[in-house]
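forwarding from the other thread:

> can someone predict this with pyridoxal-5'-phosphate?

sure thing
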Amino acid sequence: MTPDEFKKLGYQLVDWVSEYLTKVGDYPVCSSLQPGEIKEKLPAQPPIKAESMADIFQDFEKVIFPGMTHWQHPGWFAYFPANNSPPSILAELLTAGLGAQCMIWKTSPAAAELEEVVCDWLRQMLALPKGFVGVIQDTASTSTLVALLTAREKATAFQSNIRGMKEPLCVYASQEAHSSVEKDVKIAGYGKESLRYIPTDENYALIPELLEQAIEQDKKQGLTPACVVATLGTTSSGAVDPLEPIGKICQRHKIWLHVDAAYAGTAALLPEKRWILEGVEKVDSFVFNPHKWMLTNFDCSAYFVKDKEALIKTFEIHPEYLKTGVDAVVNNYRDWGIQLGRRFRALKLWFVIRTYGVEGIQALIRKHIALAQKFREWLEADSRFEILAPTHFSLVCFRLNDGRNEAALNELNRIFHDRINQSGQIFLTHTSLKGKYTLRLVVGSRTTEEKHVQQAWEIIRQAADALLGGGKS
Ligand SMILES: *Cc1c(COP(=O)(O)O)cnc(C)c1O
């Protein structure tokens, strides 16, 4: 591709992306293709001869695009959001253009220093304690793995020798913790049987007394409690584990306390939501994902630690070929996580935070929370619906309940859920709360306005009408 062709096509693609973002709400949220349909349209062998960009782009529109799920759709109420934004997209373009590999300071000083600065901006934006230092990881799964590895090293006095240990290490998390905790416990070598799931209360938050009982029982058995993972904003229901009492227990027993706030951490930008952080000074590490609810393109996970030395001691390496004269005075982020090679992710955060300002991001988060609250009030006013969990953030958990037995209710709500998604205009996912089939509606798309939540409510009400008859308030 010549520079002139690149320029011409580049402008065309920016036009395409711009138009896509404006029109994304016109597409069905989810693709209706069946498994295998896309593969069938793709040649099994790589092209031997060069192909033109015109052909490639035509296939992108014809073959690939219909198979996309539109995460930026204003009717996206599923999972958690992964919202992007124009400034973040432009920064990704620059990152791709620079093509830098930012493993150490020397391999791009600006990437290292910008990362240090924007991580501290994020720390201030969330009102995390002074002294916490941040690093950008790819995902919360990786951040939690980094925390578990650091906790493991600390518990074994940095001997990296869990095999030789007579006292196996234990990890604790609530029954509502994200599946990445179990995955990371397996990867970090603790073994799945070392993970203790602590029961939760009626609001799905970890019960601190039961955590301490489990810790004491393990100690009596000669085991070593190494790490507790608390969650702010669980995936199923948005529950908030109480950091203050959990932190006290961890301090008493000298256990690493990691906080998974992947989705809800962004809410701590709002002073009125900072109660979720009460006790955070007792925390050892904390992760939240700007790539979820903070307008930053996937991937971008912000990981903070109190004891930077423990983190670095866990991951540092000193091969001759990576030594530089400035290693003592700069951050070499290869030693702050698993990867050696690193993308320049700080640039998109810098673009986003500067373009919106802290106030602009706060306004968006506040709007999403208010819209979720409104939706919850509509449900509350219609006796056919039952709300199944508190709404601390922008996630509402609900189901139809006409008094039939639990098994029949689960079946009813499964059908109800299918009907809602069949509209193609909105997309909701589900979970199970205490055995109950639960629909989840999360407001978090950058483009979701009140009219979209109203439209969702219309679709949901009509599905309820079809199954149960008209609403009684
Ligand atoms: C989304 C989520 C995760 C996983 O995040 P990734 O960045 O995709 O690894 C983990 N924990 C919680 C609470 C989440 O909401």
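The pocket of pyridoxal-5'-phosphate is lined by residues 80, 139-141, 178, 180, 231, 233, 235, 260, 262-263, 289, 301 (CB under 6 Å). thats all i got for now
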